[in-house]
Every structure is written in structure tokens, then in C-alpha cells.
Amino acid sequence: MSGLTVEGINHDWGARRALDGVSFTVQSGRFCALLGPNGAGKSTLFGMLTRLFMPRAGRITVAGHDMAREPRAALARMGVVFQASTLDPDLTVKRNLLYFAALHGLPGSEAEKRAMVVLEQLGMAERAGEKAAKLNGGHRRRMEIARALLHRPQVLLLDEPTVGLDAASRAAITTHVHDLAAGGLTVLWATHLVDEVREKDRLVILHQGRVLANGEAGEIGGDDLTARFLALTAERR
Ligand SMILES: Nc1ncnc2c1ncn2[C@@H]1O[C@H](COP(=O)(O)OP(=O)(O)OP(=O)(O)O)[C@@H](O)[C@H]1O
């Protein structure tokens, strides 16, 4: 199994159960939206998926590698875009990428080549020489996605990557990442925005730490995913 699997993950923050038996699978090359309202447990789950902390129960595999038993192999196959931006504003777009490539141990010429390939993929090649500080929010996000692809991961995780962006930038980034999935990348995209989910996407609805729906978005939502999402997440408030 080369995508992402999450099996029976639990997590408590003190007396509060933040994740309760969370299980789902994202097949290789699929875009999966992890949709949940505020406080659903999305960021807690991302903490587990990126090994910021370990789940007490359950199992995570990335491209077939068990996160507990083979953490280096699992993490090496994963690219991550966190909610908070982590770019150096004083460096150019390309320098930011080269810096990150060096952290991955990529030699200079290979890093240069890959930086231009990933910037091209995200429609950012012409901005390679601009300072990160000069980019608008949407372009900064694209640059972070490009950076997360430098080491050629098989699985890309994005934690609410469109927060704070205008509608046009949101739409562009959502399209770019769907295109990456169409090209074979496995994507887990956490969001609370129903309009970022497409009919053919895989969809996991998370609420109060539990998976309430898991399947193809079109089948879960019928002709109105917003209404379905609100109904599902209202039932337990
Ligand atoms: N470090 C922490 N300590 C204690 N409780 C926490 C901590 N982080 C999250 N929680 C609680 O765990 C639950 C899940 O929060 P989490 O941030 O994972 O949800 P989320 O779906 O990412 O929400 P949002 O969309 O608001 O970021 C919430 O009840 C939250 O208050």
C-alpha cells in the first residue's frame, strides 16, 4: 500500500478526547480532503502524522512505511505544508528553496534543478528571483508547497493551506494541488471549507475527534455537500 493509512488513532488532551478511533486510507495518487469544523481534531491528527507526538493507540503508514517502526523512511516520503508560514522573508524564492534542499542533503546542482522544476509545477518559476517578503499570500503559499515537494515525497500533507487567502488565490492553490494528485501524488488536505472539495475527491469528515463520513465526496454529499456537512456536524453539538 503506497498511499497513507491511519488506523485506530486516539489522542487525549488532558481529560478531553481529541481523536477517537480515527481510521481512513488515502490510496496512492488520490486527493483526500479532511473536512472538519474548528476543533474537530485536524491539527492534532497532523501532529501525529508528522511525528510531532506519538499516538497512544493505532498505526500510521506512509507509502508502506510504519511511522512507529520506520519513522525515517516514513517521514522521508512525506512533504508537509503547515498552517503557519515558515519562510525567510529576506531570501529570494529560489534561495528559500535551496536552503531547504540543503537541509535534505541535496547537492547544489541537483537542488537547483529540482527548485526550478517544483516552481514550474506551481506556476512560480518567473518569481524565482523575487524576495519572499514581496510575494502576496497566495504566492507565498505556492512557494511553501513547492518547497514541500523538493525531496520528491509520495505523500503531501497540507493543514488548512488556504487560510487567510482571497477567493482567487484559494481557487488557484486548490487547483494546483488537485493537479499534483492527478500526476500521482497522494494528498491529504485539511480544511473547514466545503467549496475546496471536489466531487471525485476522497473525503473524510472529522468532528469532535471522530470520523463521521469516509468515502467519495460526491457520494457523501449528494447534490449538496454543504447541507450534508452541516447536518452531520450539527447532530452532535
Ligand atoms: N495543545 C493542546 N492542549 C490542549 N488541548 C488542545 C491542544 N491542541 C488542541 N486541543 C484541543 O483538541 C481539540 C482538537 O483541536 P485541533 O486544533 O486538533 O482541531 P482543528 O480541527 O485543527 O481545529 P481548527 O480548525 O480550529 O484548527 C480541541 O478541543 C482543542 O481545544
Q: If you average the pLDDT, what whole number results?
A: 93
Number of domains: 2
Give the strand order of the largest sheet, numbering strands 1, 2, ... along the chain.
Answer: 6-7-8-3-9-10
What is the number of beta strands? Answer: 10
Oligomer: single chain
Head-to-tail CA distance between termini: 36 Å
Return residue spans where pLDDT drops below 50 for at least 5 consecutive residues. Answer: none
Give the C-alpha Rg.
18 Å
Shape: globular
Q: Specify the biggest β-sheet.
A: 6 strands, mixed
Going by CATH, the architecture of the largest domain would be 3-Layer(aba) Sandwich
Percent strand? 25-35%
The CATH superfamily name of the largest domain is: P-loop containing nucleotide triphosphate hydrolases
Bound compounds: adenosine-5'-triphosphate
Domain ABC transporter: 4-233
GO molecular function: ATP binding; ATP hydrolysis activity
Pfam families: ABC_tran
Family: Belongs to the ABC transporter superfamily.
Record the SSE blueprint:
Blueprint: E1 4-13, E2 16-26, E3 31-35, H1 42-49, E4 57-62, E5 65-66, H2 71-76, E6 78-81, H3 93-103, H4 108-121, H5 137-149, E7 155-159, H6 167-182, E8 186-191, E9 202-207, E10 210-216, H7 217-221, H8 225-234
Parallel strand pairs: 3-8, 3-9, 6-7, 7-8
Antiparallel strand pairs: 1-2, 1-4, 4-5, 9-10
Helix pairs in contact: 3-4, 4-5, 5-6
Domain ABC transporter: 4-233
Family: Belongs to the ABC transporter superfamily.
GO molecular function: ATP binding; ATP hydrolysis activity
Q: Can you walk me through this structure?
A:
This protein has 237 residues and is α/β, with parallel strands linked by helices. It has 2 domains: 1-77 and 155-237, P-loop containing nucleotide triphosphate hydrolases (Rossmann fold), CATH 3.40.50.300; 87-152, no CATH class. It has 8 helices and 10 strands. The strands form 2 sheets. The chain has a 6-stranded mixed beta sheet with strand order 6-7-8-3-9-10, sandwiched between helices. Strands 2-1-4-5 form a 4-stranded antiparallel beta sheet. Strand 1 and strand 2 form a beta hairpin. Helix 3 packs across helix 4 (108-121) and helix 4 packs across helix 5. 41% of the residues are buried. The model has no long low-confidence stretch (mean pLDDT 93). It binds adenosine-5'-triphosphate. Adenosine-5'-triphosphate binds next to strand 2 and helix 1.
